[in-house]
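for ur thesis appendix - ribose-5-phosphate isomerase. copy paste whatever u need, i formatted it the way the template wanted (i think)
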Amino acid sequence: LVVSTQSSSSARSPVNNLTQDELKKIAAYKAVEFVQSGMVLGLGTGSTAKHAVDRIAELMKLGKLKNIVGIPTSNMTRDQAVSLGIPLSDLDTHPIIDMAIDGADEVDPDMNLVKGRGGSLLREKMVETASKKFIVIVDESKLVNHIGGSGLAMPVEIVPFCWKFTLKRLEMLFMEAGCIGKLRMFPGTENPFVTDNGNYIIDLYFKKDIGDLKAASDAILRLAGVVEHGMFLDMATTLIVAGELGVTVRNK
Ligand code: 5RP
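the 3d part is after this line
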């Protein structure tokens, strides 16, 4: 596989007939090429990040990566890393992380992200804002022109207390964008999805573009009852995209 590394152009190399999961794996493996021995690593969550964690463990077993410390962004990733023998720590011990690698649900041309459809947005944001480098790994289906405008969910983590009140307040904030909020449920049940932090998630759906992302972010965070939202603005330092035509690495 030939890979193009660039700062802004979009040259690609041919990779044909791959499944979405294979594309995710290509992006993840490419990101792990940037990992060096001795690094403290933020370990992302989701099906793309899972490939990166597998690859890190594989290179550790081969002796090609040594003295790695992982900071997991979810209980799921923690369990995966433990099962693979990756030594783990936390932000209390390592408040500065060398590099984090994680997937995303949407990526806009400025590398702003929507994350959290897997439910781990709070820990992801804590770990990734503490990282000197944040590599985002996606297959090309995640690329959008405007985040929040895809018709798919914009997750917001809220405290369970009076969640309907917070849901209404969130909808009212974005009334002009035709916002509908839905409490996320555990699939196939009538039970609310509960995050690793014991909170609920409201998925916001917009009929129209929400406009200024920074203003939207600030407004959501000002609401009492909100813990964090899934917009990751101006955080990614590198974007790795795998698509049918190849894989690109773009630095901010
Ligand atoms: C989890 C996330 C994930 O990174 C995001 O949902 C992408 O997931 P996947 O790699 O499975 O497509 O933000 O909270």
